[in-house]
Amino acid sequence: MKRIIIICIGLLATITAMAQQGLNINSLFNEKLITDEWVTQELNGKTEIIVTGNKAKELGLTTYHSISVTGKAKSDRSAIERLVIKDGSQAIDKDVEYRNGQLYYGFYTLKPNKKNKRYIFYLNQNLANKSPKNIVTVIYMEGKKSPEEVKKLIRK
Question: Nearest Cα to 42, choosing from 77, 67, 78, 16?
Fold first, then answer.
C-alpha cells in the first residue's frame, strides 16, 4: 500500500511540474514539495502553495501553483521579474503596470494547452503605494475559468 501511495505522489508531482513546463517561471518552483492536493511549504523566506485535485476543482481550476518570496535582495526580485516578463512576452493577452521602471503587477493569459486556459499572475508588493512589503508573488494557474473569473479568484 505504501508503494502505491508513493507512486501516486510521484505522478502528481510529475503532472504539476509539467503544467509549467516550457515556461521560464518553472525554475522558481520546487516540485519536490508536492505531497498532497493542498500543500503549503515555507523554506528560507519562500512560501509555496500548490493546489491540485478536488481542492483545485473547488476553485474551478486544475492547477494553482504560487510562490511568494520574502526579504530577497533587489537583484533576486529583478531576476524573478525577468522570468515573468519573458513568459509574458508570449502571452496572448496581458494587463501590466510598471512603477519606477519595474514591473509592479502583471496578469498574463498564455496560449491554452489542449484542455485548459493558462495564466500567470505577478505582484511586487515592494512597489505598493500603501504599506509596501518586501514580497514578490508569482502564481501559475490552469483551468476552464475566464481571465475575469481568475482575477476575481486572485482578489479573494
Answer: 67
Q: Cβ neighbours of residue 122 under 8 Å, at least 6 residues apart?
A: 81, 84, 88, 103, 105, 106, 107, 108, 136, 137, 138, 139
- Residues β-bridged to residue 69: 46, 136
Cα 107 vs. chain centroid, distance in angstroms?
A: 11
Predicted confidence (pLDDT) per residue in 46-74, tens digit: 788 888 888 888 888 998 988 888 876 66
Report the DSSP pairing between strands 93-99 and 102-110.
Answer: antiparallel
Tell me the C-alpha to C-alpha distance, in Å, between residue 21 and each of 1, 15, 118, 121, 133: 30, 10, 12, 16, 30
Predicted TM-score (pTM) of the model is: 0.78
User: Tens of pLDDT along 83-140?
Assistant: 999 999 999 999 999 999 999 999 999 999 888 999 999 999 999 988 888 899 999 9
Strands in the chain per DSSP E: 38-43, 46-51, 61-70, 93-99, 102-110, 117-124, 135-143
| Cell matching residue 149 | 473569473
CB 147 within 8 A of CB 119: yes
> In the chain, where are the structural domains located?
2-155
Are the CB atoms for 144 and 150 separated by under 8 Å? no
